[in-house]
Amino acid sequence: MENIKRQGLLGVIYFLGNSSYSAVLGLVANLVFTIFLTPAEYGLYFIVLSLIAIFNYFTDLGLAAALIQRKDPKEEEFYTAFTIQLTLVTIIVIIGLLVTPLIRVWYHFDQTGTHLYLAMLFSLFTLSFKSVPSTRLERKLDYSKIVITQAFENTLFYGVSIVLMLSGFKIYALVIAIVLRSILGAGLIYWFTRWVPRIYFSRQYAKGILSFGIPFQANVFLAFIKDDLLNLYMAQRLGLSGIGYVGWAKKWAEAALRIIMDNVNRVIFPIFSKFQDDPLKIKKGIEKLIFYNSLILLPVLIGAYLTMPIFIQIIPKYQKWIIAMPAFNYFLISSFLVSLYSPIMSVFNSLGKVKTSVKFMLLWIALNWTVVPLLIGLYNYTGVGMAFAINSLGFILVWYKIRQFTPVDFLASLKAPAVSALVMFLAVRVIQSLVSSNLYQNLFITILVGLLSYSFSVLFLTKGHFLNEIKELLQKKTD
Length: 479
Description:
Elements: H1 2-36, H2 39-57, H3 63-69, H4 75-98, H5 100-107, H6 111-127, H7 131-139, H8 143-166, H9 171-193, H10 203-226, H11 228-253, H12 255-273, H13 279-314, H14 325-339, H15 342-350, H16 354-379, H17 381-391, H18 395-403, H19 410-434, H20 439-462, H21 465-475
């Protein structure tokens, strides 16, 4: 158990370390994109990502999740999963090519938009080859090789796209970077695993894999209806510039959420699957998840609220995004509320309670497709952020449901981070009212006071117990 906890914590640290590195590149790249691209061009990028996410759904059918969840899969099961996925992705890419003319007309793509779309399709095909070898590494909890691959891919993509964007390539910077990343990233993961894929199909193994994978993927399918399909609807309703403003606000507001929560969730599934029959361990695990997620996310989200108006004034050519600030603030609220329930959805899946996750996804689909169109009509793109914040209040229902399985003390887990975040907010607001109007001084003091006030408050309220816990887990030797 201690070894699993240690490997799980190391997995989170590996992914967070890579994410921190990639986040710096990603934030710099996104900054460059949003400086050199118009809102309409940025909206084009946002739409294409959603289109490819739809195609990507049909290339998996939960195969990776099924292989991770199975206790001792045979080699033939990996070959069968690879063959199924290769068949699916080939069919989907062909369909994607056939519907290209329709997509061009529907979203008013010009030639550059079409080329970006085709590059994404190529990437979809190539990167799908990574799924099974990555699964083999995850089953061994060998996260370091996955992290190195991701770091390489991100370095290549962001590095190439930034250099080419600065050189005036605009959208074509993304086209070139996407193609290079997909080819070299897939090659690296095979070099790490030394796994040689085979075309092999067993009806028996396929039935066993898909019996878990399809219900699991049904949850993913609902997620893409909730998010990516909704993005395509909003793009048609708001236009390229409008969806560009939504994309800017959502991208920046959810940056920390994607870095922290997505990587934590990735580790949750294989770890919680290993003690799915022990409610007490599940309880303690969830409480730790809520505590550490909130400990990191709350100060970052509040810091983003306090500093983004300053950044918009400092960064050249960035004033064009100021009208998206209200949407950005609503997305910040949504990001924190999502962090309160998303890890628990992964816990439901790891416990085999996929139907519970599906029911919640149906709820959020109904809310999104009801509230978002309504508020778009009333408040345009700002209404999208408002709708996401309102719908995220559904975290209360997720808390109620998991407490029927194990008595998680959510409020105790949230207390120290929430109180410390409030102290940070008040301290920064007081200091901001006293400092000079110089933007650079204001930014420096805001960050410094926020960091110090939050750190001292957390250490005072927790007495530093969480630091000792991390240190002890890292010091334990592997069994």
